[in-house]
User: Fold Gamma-aminobutyrate permease from Paenibacillus xylanivorans.
Amino acid sequence: MQDRNNQTTTGPTLKKGLRARHMTMIALGGSIGTGLFLASGTAISNAGPGGALIAYAAVGIMVFFLMTSLGELATFMPDSGSFNTYAARFVDPALGFAMGWNFWYNWAVTIAAELAAATVLIKYWFPDSSSMLWSLLFLVLIFALNVLSVKGYGESEYWFAIIKVATVIIFLTVGVLMIFGIIGGEAVGFSNFTVGDAPFHGGFFAVLGVFMAAGFSFQGTELIGVAAGESENPRENVPRAIRQVFWRILIFYILAITVISLIIPYTHPDLLKGDLNNIGVSPFTLVFEKAGLAIAASVMNAVILTSVLSAGNSGMYASSRVLYALARDGKAPRFLGRLNKKGIPMNALLLTTAVGMLAFLASLFGDGIVYTWLLNASGMCGFITWLGIAISHYRFRRAYVAQGRDLNDLPYRARWFPFGPIFAFVLCIIVIVGQNYQAFTGDQIDWSGALVAYLSVPLFLILWLGYKFIKKTKVIPLQECDFTTTNE
Assistant:
């Protein structure tokens, strides 16, 4: 095994235990969660069916380009460090350092947030039970899935994704049958697309607000880049999984929002109420109940519970692998780069789990409050990761050509270069800058709201510029970008 400095080392290595079906389902299930099952109703209510479709389609196109960029990077250089490795190789070691810690922090906090959400969901059935007990049980579950082997993570994500995908397919089937009156009584047709001022409602800023929120719904798709480092055959499995992204976005988001909008008018008051404390008014639940399925709320509660556990499971896997990669590259304490005999970065996993224990605060301060606070704490970290992917791919391709390499030798080649990464870069900047533009549009600036929305940005800049100042790093010239050194 070679490290970054081409020194031969010995010891256990990461296991290539993720098969093609695991990679496909990680890609398929990555962005299916509360953003689709809950937030889609709020999006339709705020911007109308047309506004919601435009916003989700625009973000979907951006994510598609990001995933093709990541696909080109991950097939050429599959690495558990993924984003931070690519940024350090093709842009600047300081950017790689900041991206790695930003990604770890984002997903480590997400574990805690999803565990807090799971306690809220489980209290749908057991309202008087202990939050601490459920947080502990769920934390032990996802830790066990990750500590067994990488295949344990892959298998659990495979079945979590199967549940989510099956739910959406059943929902779409039932919805289409309702639209044409085959079930549920009278055919609703397209009448709800013309209710009030539909299909667009609230004007440009309403659509912009949904556009900002839609970005959060798609976060998780980038996990395929981390998983590539432990794929049995990344040059075949990663492109196959990446190609699923466009169709997933089309089917699972665009069609689902269309079906919801056709069956439930955007003026329906319950669309605004769908959240973790109101599973009964999830737009999916509303449609199923309208079709005559009385147990819809319980079924959707169970599906959404698997979704948040899936997000926590993925967060623990990805954040521990990136933390391991940071340690391996000398950007984190060395003990975090040790692997056990099964190829699991145990110390990185334990530290990440310790952060997940923050979910226990749910029992002290109230489940919904803590979930919201933890989610806000990670802020825009995901968008910063996407921004870094776009920059890394742009520099990768330019360096590849500058060094006289043949583009036909790439195992997977992203189309639409350089439009793809530039388009994704611009949209990510718009999302980041406009995340809480309302804080600056009133008579007085809402400093509290601005702090919550933008805190991730100065933290990232401190990491980036601080490392750059201490280590005296510079942007790597295109001719000097390293395409040859292996990390595993």
